[in-house]
Design a protein that fits this description.
Length: about 450
């Protein structure tokens, strides 16, 4: 019996979604709830599972296509006439199977495939025939052509983490049984010389390392622009095309802030929160936005009105394997320092696993991008359209500065704010930055609730 699989309403009130990845091919057997297709809605990617057990008869749209909700995206042949679903290992495409031979040499797939439920023999737990692992880990395993059932899991209930996968790929594998060309014969005179002890023989000369033939590596690679990367490209282009960007930069003495954070870290950890500098930055930013609300606005070009927001939904740029994602902390101005830290920790973790709902990546009124942990002393961030400003946070470093006529070492950091000059004047941008600097250089004001 043929079953038409329609693109479901994911519950976000959207009219369409972009198919970013198919987990199946035509003619492939699938089981109900197996990974079937990934669909992107705005910045969130959702994995949709198979609606029934059967064989994929046809796929109606290629990856990268935007499809209206309710459209038939695939047809499955179901019922007693359909072939039984094959083990997951049998569905590896030919090219991926070849690439997987070497990584899987130490743990044959045949042995792992024998476990339909319970443990896979490597410490991982199978639930309904699937290994426990985050979507990002599954995606990486597919890219490497590795069956997750062959990977020992170290997490709770044998959950396979990204670290487990990396260790598996880097572990020594069985050597490939291929003949190695013998080294050139030594001259006859050399053969008469006394032989050196075997332990001291220079092994580097025993068999020269084979080098890849010229032209074996591709000089170019073409990657489809789709999914989150495509949406980032569209947003950045729209922002640069629309907003009149200008950037204001100043330096900040964070010596007192570093000391305050260190003193609060034990109490935060006791509450289950890893306290970073971001909660302080968010609180200082919101205080400045309350004094300069034009930076917390948008421009309605259709009505030619400036929409000033008196609520503060703060977005923060998060680097993930899928690309740049901006989770949003709703009503950040009503949260405590500890609550902000917990929200940041939760949203960032789920962003990296691809588990954010659409509501958690939309609706921001102001965005902060923090690359300080990566490095760099200055950047000019692109405004997160349709907002009118974005704050850039850079690395903390010891610098020699002058204080009261003496040269001292202080912990310094640069801040940059990119602003839409159509809405905000340069003087207000500078005053906004000055307010943030004053609060962070004397962070006790934040703790005293002077906001």
């Amino acid at each position: 019996m043929a079953l038409e699989f329609k693109l479901p309403d994911i519950g976000e009130g959207l009219a369409e979604g972009e198919i970013t990845r198919w987990h199946v091919t035509e003619g492939q057997s699938v089981k109900e709830n197996d990974p079937f297709v990934e669909v992107m809605t705005d910045k969130a990617t959702v994995e949709i599972t198979a609606p029934a057990t059967g064989v994929v008869k046809s796929i109606k749209f290629a990856a990268g296509t935007t499809v209206p909700i309710g459209s038939v995206i695939a047809v499955l042949e179901t019922g007693s006439g359909a072939p039984a679903a094959a083990p997951a290992a049998a569905h590896v495409p030919a090219a991926a199977a070849v690439a997987a031979i070497a990584p899987m040499a130490a743990a044959p797939v045949a042995a792992a495939a024998g476990h339909a439920a319970g443990s896979n023999g490597n410490g991982a737990t199978l639930v309904a025939g699937r290994v426990l692992a985050a979507p990002a880990v599954r995606r990486r395993a597919r890219e490497l052509g590795i069956d997750l059932r062959s990977v020992p899991g170290s997490g709770p209930a044998g959950r396979v983490s990204r670290a487990d996968l990396e260790r598996f790929t880097q572990a020594p594998r069985a050597p490939i049984a291929a003949p190695i060309a013998a080294a050139p014969a030594a001259p006859a005179a050399a053969a008469k010389a006394p032989a050196a002890p075997a332990a001291k023989a220079p092994t580097a000369l025993a068999a020269p390392r084979a080098t890849a033939p010229v032209g074996a590596t591709k000089a170019e690679e073409r990657l489809p622009l789709r999914g989150i990367r495509k949406r980032i490209a569209e947003r950045m282009q729209q922002s640069k095309r629309t907003a009149a960007h200008f950037t204001y930069v100043d330096e900040l003495d964070v010596t007192n802030l570093v000391e305050l954070r260190e003193s609060l870290k034990p109490a935060a950890l006791a509450a289950g929160v890893k306290l970073t500098f971001m909660p302080f930055l968010i609180q200082a930013t919101i205080a400045a936005l309350r004094k300069f609300p034009m930076l917390n606005s948008t421009l309605d070009e259709a009505t030619q009105e400036i929409v000033v927001k008196h609520y503060h939904h703060i977005g923060f740029a998060c680097d993930t394997e899928q690309g740049l994602v901006v989770p949003v902390i709703k009503d950040a101005g009503q949260r405590s320092l500890l609550n902000l830290g917990a929200a940041l920790q939760d949203l960032a973790a789920r962003a990296r696993e691809g588990k954010l709902a659409l509501d958690e990546v939309t609706g921001s009124t102001f965005t902060i991008t923090n690359a300080g942990n990566i490095g760099g002393i200055l950047a000019t961030p692109v405004i997160n359209f349709p907002e009118v400003a974005i704050l850039g946070v850079h690395k903390i470093a010891d610098r020699a500065v002058v204080r009261n006529g003496s040269i001292v070492i202080r912990k310094m950091m640069n801040l940059s704010v990119s602003i839409d000059h159509r809405i905000v004047d340069g003087a207000d941008g500078a005053r906004f930055m000055n307010e943030i600097l004053a609060l962070l250089e004397d962070p006790r004001r934040l703790m005293l609730g002077s906001l």
